[in-house]
Amino acid sequence: MMTGHQQEAEASAALIAKQMLPLIAAALVVRKPLQPRPLSPKDEAIMVACGVLGRALDKVDASIHTKGERRARWELDNATRELRKLIDLREARYARK
Prior knowledge:
Elements: H1 4-30, H2 41-62, H3 69-92
Helix pairs in contact: 2-3
């Protein structure tokens, strides 16, 4: 059974919590957004290689049945190999030794 003092303390705590709620909500809204972690040099190289691969793929797509198709396919093959090499180097760090 609660005594009168406990009931008063709980009522007071509930009132204080109710009054603080807008302040806490405002602090959460105003808080600066989290900045993304900067990419490591390996991750950045992979992102650049993905862009090169995408451009090479677009070039192959645009040059189908033209004189430049063979060169575009060669560039696509090189871009694919380079990206695979970078991914393998990155994954080697996580491989069991």
